[in-house]
Design goal:
By secondary structure, the chain is an alpha+beta fold. The protein contains ten helices and 15 strands. The chain has four domains: 84 residues, Helix Hairpins, CATH 1.10.287.110; 138 residues, Heat shock protein DnaJ, cysteine-rich domain (Chaperone, DNAj Protein, Chain A); 72 residues, HSP40/DNAj peptide-binding domain (Sandwich); 32 residues. Helix 2 runs antiparallel to helix 3. The longest helix has 17 residues. The protein is elongated, with a radius of gyration of 40 Å. Homodimer. Keywords: Chaperone, Cytoplasm, DNA replication, Metal-binding, Repeat, Stress response, Zinc, Zinc-finger. One of its GO terms (molecular function) is heat shock protein binding. Belongs to the DnaJ family.
């Protein structure tokens, strides 16, 4: 702790009076307090430095030693714990709560509080997601006790206003500190911040005013949902406190992939295989769609990998009109083996196309295959 200029830390001159030290400390501490400089590491370090300087200069014995030797090393009453955070400063944290709004601002402790939200995951088949479905979900949630309506008091009795806080749920505490007298606000310990005291608790909820219930809720899941979608159901979450609103239920959707179709947004993709002859001459094929089988004409000369669009045969748009499209990818199958008739026909096709058989069948093995009888 040697070689620290505590006077410079408080921006005062050596020999400053006790009142000047207090005034300087208060000014610097308020300037660098963490509540006003959240996430600022430099301000946090400066605040600790100011804190340390004040603890030395406000103590006559430590100040005398510091003024004489420039250090307080060796003092068993100062060191790792003394120059630390708020806890060693005799109510320092409470003082700054009153400075920066920490003591009493915001919602009253016994005011209405919104109930917590509840989440539930639902897994759908591909078809259920496409067309929509009604699902029953079972959730556990906190509800107002049906016997005391959430008051916590036994039927026929009422909760009494807390005499300590007069129903506010908070009490003011006056403290004397090195900086003077300061008042802070804290939760009333007699009523735990509720503002009321239940003298005769409800036997059903033991005075809590809340019970856990399992509820079955029917959910209409619209057509077109997909994995990752979230459905909010307003007012189906946990009940609020002191008349606060009910929370919400959020349904998270997960969809099992189809073995036949590939989904991309609101569009659907499917592969269909045809022979070389059908690709060359054109043909009519049967295509599976989410609505059932349909007939589709493949034009002559279709190349492998060609995509054909079936308009409005895709996924419905959630809570909207219209649908996506279905795309049919044509895969032309090349035979891996040929019988004698197929080889002869292919040889004639090569010659009829004006190509040289020797040029096409450039490998000896292929020629042997065609010459095989």
């Amino acid at each position: 702790m040697a070689n620290k200029d505590y006077y410079a830390s408080l921006e005062i001159q050596k020999g400053a009076s006790e009142d000047e030290i207090k005034k300087a400390f208060r000014k610097q501490a308020m300037k660098y307090h963490p509540d006003k400089n959240q996430g600022n590491d430099v301000a946090e370090a400066k605040f600790k430095e100011v804190n340390e300087a004040y603890q030395v200069l406000s103590d006559p014995e430590k100040k005398s030693r510091y003024d004489q030797f420039g250090t307080v090393d060796g003092d068993p009453g100062f060191g790792g714990g003394g120059a630390g955070g708020f806890s060693d400063m005799g109510g320092f944290g409470d003082i700054f709560e009153s400075f920066f709004g920490g003591g009493g601002g915001g919602r009253r402790a016994n005011g209405p509080a919104r109930g917590a939200d509840v989440e539930y995951s639902v897994t759908l088949t591909f078809e259920e997601a496409v067309f929509g479905v009604k699902k029953d979900v079972s959730i556990n949630r906190s509800e107002n006790c049906e016997y005391c309506s959430g008051s916590g008091a036994k039927a026929g009795t009422t909760a009494k206003t807390c005499p300590s806080c007069n129903g506010s749920g908070q009490v003011r505490v006056q403290r004397q500190t090195p900086l003077g007298s300061f008042a802070s606000t804290s939760t009333c310990d007699k009523c735990a911040g509720k503002g009321k005291i239940v003298e005769t608790p409800c036997p059903s909820c033991s005075g809590r005013g809340k019970t856990r219930k399992n509820r079955k809720i029917s959910v209409n899941i619209p057509a077109g949902v997909d994995t990752g979608n979230v459905m909010p159901l307003r007012g189906e979450g946990e009940h609020g406190t002191n008349g606060g609103p009910v929370g919400d239920l959020y349904i998270r959707i997960n969809v099992t992939p189809s073995k036949k179709f590939t989904r991309k947004g609101v569009d659907v993709y499917i592969d269909t295989h045809i022979s070389m002859a059908k690709a060359a001459l054109g043909t009519e094929i049967t295509v599976s769609t989410v609505d059932g089988d349909v007939k589709y004409t493949i034009p002559q000369g279709t190349q492998s990998g060609t995509l054909f669009r079936l308009k409005n045969k895709g996924i419905p748009r959630v809570n909207s009109t219209g649908r996506g499209d279905q795309y049919v990818k044509v895969i032309v199958d090349i035979p891996k083996t040929l019988n004698e008739k197929q080889r002869e026909a292919l040889k004639m096709l090569i010659e009829a196309s004006g190509e040289s058989f020797d040029e096409v069948a450039h490998k000896k093995g292929i020629k042997d295959l065609f010459n095989k009888k």
